[in-house]
Queue: 2 jobs
Job 1
Amino acid sequence: MSSDHRITETLDVKGQSCPMPIVKTKQAIDDLEAGDVLEVVATDSGSMSDVRGWADGTAGVELLEQVEDDDLYTHYVKKTEE
Amino acid sequence: MSTDEPPTSADNVDAPAAESEDEIDAEELRALRERVEVLEASLAESDAGDDEKKLTIVATQGTFDMAYPPLILASTAAAFGWEVVVFHTFWGLDILHEEKSKELKLSAVGNPNMPVPNALAALPGMDTVATRMMQRRIDDNGTATIEELIDLSIESGVDLQACQMTIELMDYDEEDFYDGVTTGVGAATALNHMADSDVQLLV
C-alpha cells in the first residue's frame, strides 16, 4: 500500500459499502483545493470499478492510482481544478 | 454532383461560363465556411451547457427493499455532479415519511428468494421476520440506512419530491416528511423534469 503520491488527506471508508465510498469521496474532494491528492481506503471491492467510473465521469478530478492489497482497496484521487 | 454532369460537357466548351460558375462556387464556399463556423460555435455553446447531466427517478414503491435503489442512484448521481430529482408517489411517499421510513417492511410473500414457501410467508409476523433478516444483512454489510441515504441525498442537493395528490390520498400531512422534502408538486412537474433529463427511471 506504499505510494509515492503526496497525499493531502486520507479518507477512511473501511466497512462501508456502495454508495458510501463514492459519496464520501465526492464530499472530501469538495473540501480540498486544486492540486491536492485524496487517499481513499476502502474494503468494498466494488469501489475499484466505482471510483474509476466516478473519476471518469466527473470534471476536475483525476484518478492517479488504485492499489489492491489483501482486502484493502486504496484509491488516489487528485483534484485538478476547483 | 451527378445532376451537374450532363451540362458540364457543354459548359466546358464555353470558358467564360465555366469561370462564372467557379466564382459562384467560391462565394458559396465562403458562405458555407461562415455557416460552418457559426454552427460550430453554437454547437460548442450547447455542448458546454449540456455538461451537467440530469436524472429523474419516479419512486412508487414503499417496501424496505425498493426504497434502496432510488436513494442509492440519486446520491451517487449527485456525487457525479448531476442534477437529481426523485418524484415520490403512492407508496414511494413512505420513503420520505419520517416515521414510516423507519418501519418499511420487506414482503415475505411473492418473493421467490425467501427461504420459506409462500404459504408460510403469508402467516402473521413473517414480513417482520423477513425485514429483520434483511436489516441484519444490511448492518453486517456496512450498507447505509435509509435515513442516512435520505440525509446524504438532501445534503448533496437531490430534490426529493413528494407528490401532492398522493399525500392527500394517503391522508398524510406535509409536516410528516423529512426537512428539505419538496411538496406541492404533481405529475406535470414530474413530466417536465423527465423531459429535461438525460436519464429517467421508474422504480
Job 2
Amino acid sequence: MAKTAPAQRNSADTATLAVRTAKGSDVGAVADLDARITGIAKLAYWEDMFERYGKRSNRYFLVADDCGDCLLGFILGEVRAWEFGSPPSGWIFALGVDPDCRLRKIGSRLFAAMCDCLAESGVDTVRTMLARDDGLNMAFFRSQGMMGGPFIQLEMPVAAKRGRGTEADSTG
Amino acid sequence: MKLQKATRGALFALLELVRYPAQQISAAQIAERYGISANHLAKVLRDLTRAGLVESVRGAGGGYRFCGNAKRVTLYEVISLFEDTAGSTSRPDPGDDTEIGQALARVMNEINEIAAATLASITLSTLLKIVDRDVAARPAARPSADAPTGPDPTPGT
C-alpha cells in the first residue's frame, strides 16, 4: 500500500512522479492524505468512492505517486449527462495534493491526466464546483485555464420548505 | 462592476511589467500603450511602489519593474489598494433599513461575494495566461505587435 509522503519531503523533482489509476491498496493512503488536508477522517467514504469510481467506465479515480512509494495526490472525475440540460461533460469533484509537496506540478499533472481521460470519453468540457472561500483550489483551477461557466449553484435549508409540498403556490 | 481609472491603470501597469520582466518600462510608455494619462499613471505607480509591488529604476533606460510574486498577487489585492472592495466605508443609503432594503442588500452582497471570490482567485500570472490563450486562439495573431522594443516575455508558468 502506498504511504502518504512524510512531512519533510519537499523536493522540486518531478521526474519520479507518476500519475496512474487508483488501486484498492491506495485507498488508505488517499484517506490519510484527505484527512491531512481537510482535517476530517472518512475512510468509509473513500472506500465507497473507490467502489463507485475506481472500477467503472467513464469514471476516473487517479493518483499521483513517487515511484510507487509515497502517494502525493489524487483526483476524481466522471462524465455526467443532461443534468439541467447540460450535454455530456466532464466533472471533477475531488482533488487533493500533499501540502508538503506543493509547487511540484502534482495538481497540474493530475488535472491534465484527468482531462485526457475525459477527452477520451468523448466530452469537450470539464467542470468543477468549489466553495467560494476555497481560495487555494479556486486559484489552482483558474491557473489551469478554467473560467466561470454557464451554471450557478443555488441552495437553501430544506427545513424552510418542509411540510409545504401540498400548499398552493402562485409561482408554481 | 466597473473599475476606477486608477485601478485600471494599476492593473495595466502591473501586467505590462510582469509580462516583460527583463525591461524597465516608464510610466509614459505604459500610458501611451493604453491611452491613459501619464501624470495619473505616475501617481498610481507611486502607490504601487509604496505597496511593494513595483520599484523604480533610475538613470538612462530607467523606469519601473515588478518586484512581487506574479503567481501570488491577485487582482483582488491590487483592486483593494485603490477601491473599497469590502464596502466597509460606504454610507447607508435611504431605505437600507427597511425590509425590502435589507433583502435587496442581501442580493447585492451575494453578487459582491461572487465578484470578490473571482477576483481573489485570479493572479497576475493567471491573467496573462488568459491573454496568451486569447492571442493564440486568434487567427493570424501577432502577439509581439504591441510589445515594447526588444521584448523578453515572462517564461511560461
